[in-house]
Amino acid sequence: MTSVVFIVAGDPSQLTGGYIYDERIAAGLRHAGYAVETIGLAGRFPLADSRAQNAMADTLACLPADCHVVIDGLALGTLGATVAAHRGARRITALVHHPLADEAGLDAQQVTQLKTAEHAALAGVDHVIVTSAFTARRLSSAYDVATDRISVVEPGIPQPITPPRDRRAPPKRLLCIATLIPRKGHETLVTALAELAAHDWVCDLIGDATRAPAHAAAVTRAIEAAGLTDRIHLRGALAPEALAEAYQGADLFVLASHYEGYGMVITEAISHGLPVVTTTGGALADTLPSSAGLAAPPGDARALAAALSRCLDEPATYNDMVAGARRAAAGLNDWDAASRAFADALGLSSPAAP
Fold first, then answer.
1. Model pLDDT for residues 68-109, shown as the tens digit of each residue
2. CATH 3.40.50.2000, the chain: domain bounds
3. How far is CA 178 from CA 107, 238, 241, 257, 277, in A?
């Protein structure tokens, strides 16, 4: 049986977009009949320490020569030399959600270090899979990855999806699902919502607050300073079942990210018939169907507030977005389709083949 091994940084069960993508692709491959294992590496990432380097080397050394190895970009980033030493014995594919140097909150030295390391690491693998055409273009132009070495496999949506509930203007329950890290733009969102305090709304911020504690504390202070503690609720990370309930219960999804390599939560919101207000940061300009929402420049709180205001003040605009989200949801692929595309990108033969 054809075997695939995913290698990720840390605990594979983390509830962030990248880890969820990896887990759902792995589950889809298993469902299709492939033998799949996911291995989480100990140590510090993405600026890997010696523990992480040893974990990567030991893991690769123990894998059979005939397996397909998929290394998540967060784990690969600064360990290119370690990985390249094992190239040739087995096929190694990098899975890049977005370049590590594009993360917000990095200083100039860290940006240079990560970009140099990832550039070298991507040159030392057999193939690269990305989750959006935007990231494919980014790797081609800024990391010198030849286009014939890149495959795009966009995320799918969970099945079955509960039929979207009826939504009518004005929207009152706003929802943001994003890990509390600088790249997600929570402070921009709080500033925008403060401009709309006269409107009738509440907003749930769902996402892990432990990955960047100083930033999470800054978001909390911003909410308090704006006098919005009774209207903006930090709910932490939630399990998938609770997330589905949150999507269904919301009237409008909002994401203020400065940059996304795809933006899975946008697609998942649309799959629930939920209209979206987001930014044009990174791949988001491509991810959001124009009929299903509005977009503002990243980091522009005033423009984000203006987009939200249109949804709150213009019933026809909001209702049209609801209809657009429902139409867009009908054309979304599920995770089984995404997994089949992933298998094709890996060049896997049918699991039923001798």
1. 999 999 999 999 999 998 887 788 999 999 999 999 889 999
2. 3-156+334-346, 173-330
3. 22, 11, 16, 9, 14
